[in-house]
Known about the structure:
Strand content: 5-15%
Mean pLDDT: 80
Low-confidence stretches: 21-26, 167-188, 192-200, 507-529
Number of helices: 21
Distance between the termini: 19 Å
Largest sheet: 4 strands, mixed
Shape: globular
Amino acid sequence: MKKNRYCFIKILFFFGCSLFLTACSKDAIYPQRPIDHSYFYNETSLQQINGAVIVELKYAYKITGVEFALVMLKKNPSAMPVEEYAAGLFDAWRIGERNNGRGVLILFIEDVGTVKIEVGYAVEHIFTDTFCSNFQPTVKAYYNKRHFGDAFCGFIRWMYRRYMSKESADADELMQLRLFAKDREMPEGFLSGGGGIVDSEYITDKKFKLSLIRDISKEEQEKYKSDKNIEIVIKRYFQSLEQGVNYPYLDILTKGSQMMRFEYPESMHFMRFIGREYAKALPYRIIENKQLALVRFKDDKALPLFMRKDSSGYWKLDIVKSWVFSYQDEQTRKIKPFVCEHAWMFGFPEYNCEDSLFNVPDLSPLDIDKIIKKLEENIVLDPNNASNYFRLADIFYFEYYWINSAIDMTERGLLKDPNNLKYRWLAIVMHTRVDDFSQISKHYEAILNVIPDDFIALYRYSLFLWNNLEYKKAIRLVKKAKIISKRAEERDFVRGLLEKYKNEFNGDISTGRNFFWKTCMYIYLFLFP
């Protein structure tokens, strides 16, 4: 009889908890707000971006105080228009309610690739209708191009940077990133020009990407010819940005930079936006060294321009190197070198970086079609030779900035040579660049399997795990790093890291629903130990 009474109490207890949690949702068509991270819900096939998105959402809240929430659904679970559904979900989740109306909902519907942004009343003057309506198709464009991390993590970055800059309504014109429809059909063979591009299918969604590119006449192409005078080339590049020219085959660009424009075709408006960012960073200074040159801008507020001379002495812009060798410091907003082992470091005399953990290959010839074709042939003839895959990965990443193709080649090479730590580190860097955190742990584990007491691997892996909410494992690894560290500065650094972990963990404030559920569980464990 006593046992039956306890069973009845258990049932009644959990039934009451269920009723409460169900009541928290205004309507069953809206997903319940998650307990662990109440700002992110994902039921789509894009699970590989979860870790990166959570990190971005946490950081966005930390520096702005605005509650950014991202909800990703397989399909619209109601008959409502997506605009009405987003408004209802915003209210049901009470987004921004505890932040005095400072809340933003980004709703993504996978089956139709639709993005809708709902904004709280306190931030409507910053995230205006014009701003949001122009960004929605841009997110969809990156999604269609299979750059899923760029689509969502990049968008969150744009949102919090917009908030931090407090730009006026005049800035809406800068943010008009509507996709630019092509003026006419691209000519036959438009994608030819890079070794193996068409046959090997390295470029995905060709038809869609071509639709983003505006063809230009031969007369207009002549405006952007390379020149032996470096100042003229820089001026012509800025003019192309001002005109919104996203045509890939500009003569002022290296072959690799032309190929990059196929992988990342930008809208006319976005090109103009980049041009205005450079205009705000003027003046620039040129540092030359034989066949190479570096263009740096005032206070390093814009990406530096990496330039190369061809065999005839004409200057060309290597835009790929600007992306591969640079990063933006979120605190200072300055552009800094990402690695310090490349051929342009003569232009950064004030930087003294440690050796890179991955290979930075020597510069390839400007015309690398034959090299790519030869490597492809070598892979067919000797499919177990990892070096061919790695060399092709180097070209795709460091020369073309085709990160997805470079990742594919690196992963295939590592299947043949699993203990190649240089390319394990490169794989981690590339997965991080596309905000795909799902594959990073396996590479860290492989590195530690070869060198279990490596301080750098333990430290960086612990940071990665901490940012992905794997707190216990992160602390265990950083404690191990503290034990094996031999230098005093390393031990001091790890002590600071452990203190940071402790403070952040203690400062983690749960949502009201999370608090209620934990309280229920504590009561249950007390009643039924």
